Amino acid sequence: MRRRGAWYAYLFVGPSLLGVVAFLLLPVVIVLVLSFFDWELLSDPSFAGLDNYARLLGDGEAWHSLWVTVLYVALCVPLQTVIALGAAMLLNQRVKGVRFYRSLFVVPWMATPIVLGLVWNWIFDPRDGAINRALSMVGITGPDWLSDSAWAMPAVALVTVWQYSGYNMLFFLAGLQGIPQELYDAAATDGATPRQRFWRLTLPLLNPTMFFVMVTNMIGAFQVFDTVYVMTNGGPSGSTAVLNFTIFETAFRQFDFGYASTLSMLLFVIILVVTLVQVRFFGKRTTYDLS
Question: Mind giving me the DSSP string for 7-36?
Answer without folding.
Answer: HHHHHHHHHHHHHHIIIIIHHHHHHHHHTT
